[in-house]
Amino acid sequence: MIDPLTGLNGEAYEIKAMLSRLIDHLKSREITSVLTTLVTSQSDEQSGLGISSVIDTWLDVSNLELEGERNRGINILKSRGMPHSNQVREFLITGAGVDIRDVYASEGAVLMGSAREDREARDRAAVTAREADLEGKRRRLGYRREALDAQIAALAAQRDAETLELSSEIDTGEQIERQIERDRGARTTARDAVGGSDDGRGEVRS
Q1: Is residue 72 packed enough to be buried (19+ CB in 10 Å), middle (13-18) or exposed (0-12)?
Q2: Interstrand relation of 69-79 and 89-94 (parallel, antiparallel or unpaired)
Q3: How far does Cα 140 stand from its chain's mean position?
Q4: CA nearest 31: which of 14, 56, 52?
Q5: Burial class (CB in 10 A: 0-12, 13-18, 19+), 90
Q6: Terminal alpha carbon distance of the chain
Q7: Which residues pair with 37 in a beta bridge?
Q8: What is the pTM of this model?
Q9: 139-181: per-residue pLDDT in tens?
Q10: Which helix (H) or strand (E) holds 93?
C-alpha cells in the first residue's frame, strides 16, 4: 500500500515511470496493491498521476456538502472487467469500521447525513400514517360486512317466518276448500236419495 502517491517528490514524468514499473511488477507477482492520492479535481494528472490506464479499479472518495453539512461519499470511477454501480454512496467511519450505506434517493436527489435521517424519519411517519389509514379502512370494512351479514340474516329470518305463515294459511285454505267440496258432495248425495223416482200414482219410490 502506498499512501499517498501525491506525497512523492520529483519530476512528474519520473514519478509516472517509476509507478508504472512498480505496478507492473506487482501485477506480475499477482500482488494486490492499494494506492491513494489526494486530489482537488477529477483530471488524470491530479487524480491518477497519469497512471490511470494501468489501474484496474479506481474509487473516488469525496466530501459532499449538503444543506450546510459535509458528508463522505464514495463511488467507482472504473473497475476493469467487472460490473459495478455508478451511484454515489454515503460511507461512515464508525467504531466497527467503514459502513457504506445504501443509496437513499428522494425527489431526484441522493440524500446523506442529517438530510437523509430527516427524510427517512418523515418517510417512516408517512408509511405509518398510510398503514394506520389502511388499518382503519379494514376495520370499517369489517364492521360494514358484519352489519350487512346481520341485515341478511334478519331478512332471511323474516323470509322464513313469512313463508311459514303464508304456507300455513295456504294449507288451511286448501283444507277449507276440500271440506266445502266434501260437504257439497254430501248434500248432493242426500238430495238424490230423498228425491227417488215417480210411478205415475203420486207415490215416490226409492
Answers
A1: middle
A2: antiparallel
A3: 21
A4: 56
A5: buried
A6: 144
A7: none
A8: 0.50
A9: 999 999 999 999 999 999 999 999 999 999 999 998 998 888 8
A10: strand 89-94
Element (H, E) at 74: strand 69-79
Q: What is the 3-state secondary structure (H, E, C) of 22-71?
A: HHHHHHHCCCCCCECCCCCCCCHHHHCCCCHHHCCEEEEEEEEEECCEEE
If one counts every other C-beta atom within 10 angstroms of the C-beta of residue 171, the result is: 10
User: 186: exposed, middle or buried (C-beta count within 10 Å: 0-12, 13-18, 19+)?
Assistant: exposed
Topology of the domain comprising 5-108: Rossmann fold (3.40.50)
pLDDT tens column, 40-95: 655 444 455 677 778 888 888 888 777 777 888 888 888 888 888 888 888 888 88
